[in-house]
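User: Batch of two.

Assistant: Item 1 of 2:
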Amino acid sequence: MSVTIYHNPACGTSRNTLALIRATGSEPRVIEYLVEPPSRKELVSLIARMGIAPRDLLRQKGTPYDDLGLDDDKLTDVDLIDAMMEHPVLINRPIVVGPRGVKLCRPSELVLDVLDRPLREEFVKEDGEVVNPNG
């Protein structure tokens, strides 16, 4: 099984998602997207494969979202992708590419939808929330 996570180690949701992947017995390819941002082609492909609009991938908290006026409905998808290319911190995370699709994993347990291996045992997130292997 091939799994890739676009990861930010400073993000609790991203850390939980990575740990959930590993709890299924998989070792993913980890891309720290703030260090190694996706190319424009990769970003456009990820958005298309998730079946979302570029606006749905924008992160607001802790980013230049407001300063750049990205809440303007007149901005096109190309404008929003341009902003994410210039400021990768605007790309919400974690994005996981798995055998069963691509997903923005917020909350982290959404990662289980794109993996082909189940959790082997109960998983406890950093905040103490329990993810049951039986759903």
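Item 2 of 2:
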Amino acid sequence: MKVAIVHYWLVGMRGGEKVVEALCEMYPGADIYTHVYVPEMVSETIRKHHVATTFINRLPRAQRMYKAYLPLMPMALEQLDLRPYDLIISSESGPAKGVIAPPGALHVCYCHTPMRYIWNMFHDYQQSAGFLTRLAIPPLANYLRLWDVSSAARVDSFVANSATVAARIRRYYGNDSTIIHPPIDTKAFSPVPCSEVADYYLMAGELVSYKRPDLAVRAFNELKLNLVVIGGGELLPEVCRLAGPTVSVLGPQPFAILKHHYARCRALIFPGEEDFGMVPVEAMASGRPVVAFGRGGATETVANDLTGVFFHEQTVGAIADAVKRLSTMEFDSDAIVAHAAHFNREQFVRKMRAHIDALLAQRDLAGQNLRDQSSFRRQWAAT
């Protein structure tokens, strides 16, 4: 069986690329198709596979400004020749699912989320854009929405990474989906003895507006409690400017440093609404509780009062109250680690393989029924 994996762009190793990595391990002979490819920014597991790019990769400064070519990506996807493949798995968050699959092939879309910038976060992106971009966004977004909805019909089965994303798939595409949480290497993290837990909280991840890192920094300025911030992104300068004397902004850090702080912080602060959110699971795999906004993927990964606490308004006061509430509670580190293990890499591989195998079996059965019916009609005509 020939397998193709289609991913929007390979320019780093975030959540979507971790899914691609797991799919590569499931299908060692699979070919990968993507719009833009920066080999040195992805894992060796991905680099071992044949990676083909669309014409977007050859456009000026595409490796850094790839999002500027978003309007061209539907056309680029439709030019990919996937006729040799029996199974196509698209990894969707940017445009990926719109490939034209050959008749008889199975197309499964693992959806991290329908494209945020044209659907649920359209107005946020528009408001934060410059004047000329704000003028251009509405007609471009309208065109992309029409294509995005029509291309959903090319998918045989949607898999959502969370119930939150499953609801968006139903809302925007009118499709049902199977929920399979993304793979997290929980075994890469481990707790430390209570004596090694330090007197600070941690916020980790990309510093972008929808994750609301500004709220956490302002809350800890008011609380006068220690907060360590790890991550890069467009809001890094603003976070540095907002940081008071108890907030340490470390910027992007290697995995070893992040792992060290996961295990030794008093708790992780997670102020944004995510589609799924791998960071809280990584913190819990390190034995530490989470203070999370009670919407989105965190509601599926964090167990209230067992592995953390929720706040229900994205305000400085709500975060501060949740931190105070957590400080009066005791948490069992072993129980937190055990809870995080439900989201490990093995569950993803097992569930994805079972889902795809069932779909292939249904396809083969349907094909056999058609062949049987055709044979019967020929025999009947001959008599």
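Residues 89 and 169 are 17 Å apart (CA to CA).
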